Amino acid sequence: MTIENGFTRRVLGRAALAAALAAPAIRPSFAQGAPIKVGVLHSLSGTMAISETALRDTVLMMVEDINAKGGLLGRKVEAVVVDPASNWPLFAEKARELLAVHKVDVTFGCWTSVSRKSVLPVYEELNGLLFYPVQYEGEEQSKNIFYTGAAPNQQAIPAVEYLMSADGGGAKRIALLGTDYVYPRTTNRILRAFLNSKGISNDDIMEEYTPFGHSDWQGIVSAVKRFASAGKKTAIVSTINGDANVPFYRELGNQGIKAEDIPSVAFSVGEEELAGIDTKPLVGHLAAWNYFMSVDSPVNTEFKKMWATYIKNPRRVTNDPMEATYTGFKMWSQAVTQAKTTSVDAVREAMYGQKVAAPCGYTEEMHKNHHLSKPVMIGEVQADGQFNIVWKTPTAIPAENWSPFIPENASRRAG
Question: Where are the alpha helices (DSSP H) in 23-155?
């Protein structure tokens, strides 16, 4: 039994202080100074959590890695995580919280274009810096955002060209299926104009949209089968986002739609989304990305090893937006080191021309339009949920964030 009174506490306190003064000093790993704060703005609940949780984990992995190497500018890097919960207005509120309350130096976040467009005015107003890691529709350029995912010429158009090629099956009819928001609608507007330019009439283009979280795909998949019964080779181009992909692919399997009959190419389905479903009926269907976990490159081997060590779960996979997050974090840290400050204006200037040997196996470069040069890859779904890469560009290609198929933005392209 221990009896502690005021005298005992004073004696013990003096003894502890003496011991502390006598002990050898333990030097911190970081120089003096406030930590560098990294905001993490990804949905950890709601319909987009299936895709975005892994991006939160990727940022936390990168923060842990850079701190293990001594931090940045001699300072510790600290992650500030918020959950906008797949709620688009809440994204803007959480962005303001990160910038105005937590005073973050940079943010990595968003998946959907509607979430990005929700936060864009906040980052411009408060002069924050956002790294956005997901493919999108283009038609945007902000001095406060660096876009590390693909523009349409780095994913959507090459994917459709592949479907129309002999290797891709020679499709003559295209079913455009998407979630009902700005990314699918703008991307499909671009694709419709592109298909028209290649001689495919509007009669040979089907276009359908569903809400986020849509689960009943029986009617739409049946309509695709009827559309494909006209005698022309038909393919599906999917801009379906979030957890709606799980019942969509399940319905393809239920109705016996095989890749050799009606191939589907997805722009928002990767290894993470396939982890939750039986992929055996989907073997041969396609996805278009700029990275797959199956890429054979030394940097990807290190990336996968880094992820496995951090996440400690052999079932957790890597995917394209994770790779874009990794690349963006590397570029940002290089720019901070070059600028010798986390000041947004200085880091922005230092970002131009930054290069990273990325896990995709290519060196990617940030251009003054705030977009990366990236390779394009087409992968076939395998029974184990991985992708076999069947086509890729020989080099990384610069982004066209203003599409030639959106006539009203011609002056911006010229600029």
Answer: 49-68, 88-96, 113-125
Residue 182: its pLDDT value, please?
96
Over the chain, what is the mean pLDDT?
Answer: 92
Whether 187 contacts 181, CB under 8 Å: no
Convert 215-224 to b/e letters by CB count within 10 Å (16 or more is b): eebeebbeeb
* % residues pLDDT > 90 (the chain): 88
How distant, in Å, are the alpha carbons of 69, 332, 338 from that of 30? 10, 19, 19
How many whole angstroms separate alpha carbon 111 and alpha carbon 135?
Answer: 9
User: Which residues does 109 contact at the CB level (< 8 Å), separation at least 6?
Assistant: 39, 40, 41, 42, 55, 95, 119, 130, 131, 132
In angstroms, the CA 298 to CA 60 distance is: 22
Bridge partner list, 377: 289, 392
pLDDT-derived band at 29, boundaries 50, 70, 90: low
pLDDT tens column, 170-206: 999 999 999 999 999 999 999 999 999 999 999 999 9
CA distance 329 to 109: 11
Written as six digits, the tokens of 253 are: 């399997």
Which among 48, 64, 166 has a CA at the least distance from the CA of 113? 48
pTM of the entire structure? 0.90
User: Which residue bears the tokens 């963006």?
Assistant: 328
140 contact partners, CB below 8 Å, separation of at least 6:
117, 120, 147, 401
Are the CB atoms for 191 and 406 separated by under 8 Å?
no
Among 273, 270, 316, residue whose Cα is nearest residue 295 = 270
